[in-house]
Amino acid sequence: MVKIFGIELAPLHIPMERRLQTLAVQQWTLSFLFLGFGCLIVMIYLLFTSYYWIPLIYLVYYVYDRKKSARGGRRCQWIREWAVWKYFQQYFPITLIKTADLDPNKNYIMGFHPHGILSVSAFCHFATEGSGWSKIFPGLTPYLLVLPGHFQFPGYRDYFMAGGEFVHIFKTQRVKLILRNTDNDERWKKISMQVIMFWHLISVAF
After folding, report:
1. What sign for the dihedral angle of Cα 170, 122, 127, 189?
2. N or C: which end of the chain has fewer CB within 10 A?
């Protein structure tokens, strides 16, 4: 093991499979921490170039689409099934253990706590197919309820929604309606929501 200034570096003979797993986790961590601000900085920079029309068009789109994150988001199964998420799952590894069958014709609200700083396992299980959610619970569509700040960054918000993340302010009556599947609100009918995963609890958001 090579040491530089007391820091142990990974040996050179690590298998390629493990390096890919490490890379998958690294890209996700960097995206989580910096992609939002990075996209915002790029948009601001473009305003002062000949490509100023790009952020202006996106601004119009954002104003029109700003409530999408409160209506189930815009999930993309192709992104959820990227091979990188399988490497991400294998790095730890993260395992989804099924202890009971869930009726796909019913709605469920599940709490996820404690989720840690980056909510790694919640993201892997419910925002990707890394742990094989759709195969373990066929017919159930998971959604992650996250903090609204994630959807304030241009570009990043669309990437974030692609995994099934969304934000909504729930009231007690609304929760009851979701569980009973009797909500007359057309927005919820369009979502066809079957599973909602609480990613961030209010108590740890401050």
Report:
1. negative
2. C
Cα angle for residues 156, 128, 192 (degrees, 5° grid) = 90
Q: In the chain, which ranges are E strands? A: 3-4, 7-8, 108-111, 142-145, 165-166, 195-198
Among positive and negative, which fits the CA dihedral 3, 22, 112, 160?
Answer: positive
Kindly state the average pLDDT of the residues 8-30.
Answer: 89
Q: How does pLDDT run across 38-48, given as a tens digit for each residue?
A: 999 999 999 99
* Long-range CB contact pairs, 177-182, < 8 A, 24+: 178/107, 178/109, 179/107, 179/108, 179/109, 180/107, 181/106, 181/107
Chain centre distance of CA 87: 16
DSSP classification of residue 69: G
The answer to whether 70 touches 150, Cβ cutoff 8 Å, is: no
